Amino acid sequence: MTAPLPGPPAWSVPPFAHGGPATDGSSWLPLLPVALLAGGYLLAAARDRRGWGHRRTAAWLVGCALLAIAVGPLAQVPDDPRGHMAQHLLLGMLAPLGLVLAAPVTLLLRVAPPPVRRAVGRLLRARPLRLLAHPVTAALLSTGGLALVLLTPLYAAAERQPVLHHALHLHYLAAGYLFAWSLAGPDPAPRRPGLAVRVGALLGAAAGHAVLAKYLYAQAGTLPPGLDNPDPEAFRSAAQLMYYGGDLAELLLATALFARWYNRRRPVTRRVASTESGAVTHSS
Q1: Omega before 78 cis (within 30°)?
Q2: What is the pTM of this model?
Q3: Each residue of 85-107: pLDDT tens digit?
């Protein structure tokens, strides 16, 4: 285990922020797809004749609420590196877990017409998805993608180009969703590996996230490269937020992973116990 960053997380820093688009009416447009996601899921859940679980619906709404915070209020205040990191944590780690636990693919398969269900089945069997849905690949896309942003001029370029700025947000969300789905998703997945591989991928991603946070803290005067007016203290606070916030998100993901594993084993255990009990009764 590596030692934590010096000092407690800087929770008393100025309000989280994110640079990029100007704070006019158009900057609130990203909230529209979030509202559509929430409304579409609620409509689909209402159409399920067998009854859809309230916990899954709540998980989806929590995920959407975290997305709304990331692309709404956090995007409206002046630029601050801590805001970038807060958005990364929400878009790439916390919101995806809520969305994954809501099992949207399962809900779609229950309410969609047969042609849509067949198309979804073909997609789940596609070879490219098998590669992307492997926990190791998903971990590399998630943690490795963040490292690419912070250790190269990509971060500075996204500050100047709104299209790239939003593309990085989509990457955080997609990679985070893929990672959470590959580890603990209740939805069907192509050839999901065993528990040991998934735990290893989670530990590897957590270690990479922690090392990256410490490196950003130690090199806050030079990272990310390409910035015109870097603020080392702000980036140290952002690194602390990344370190401690990442720990929280990874702990939640680990909890979901082991809860999923336990729930899948419990019916098997019950069946074995029932069989053994029946054998004893019969022999007596």
Answers
A1: no
A2: 0.85
A3: 999 999 999 999 999 999 999 99
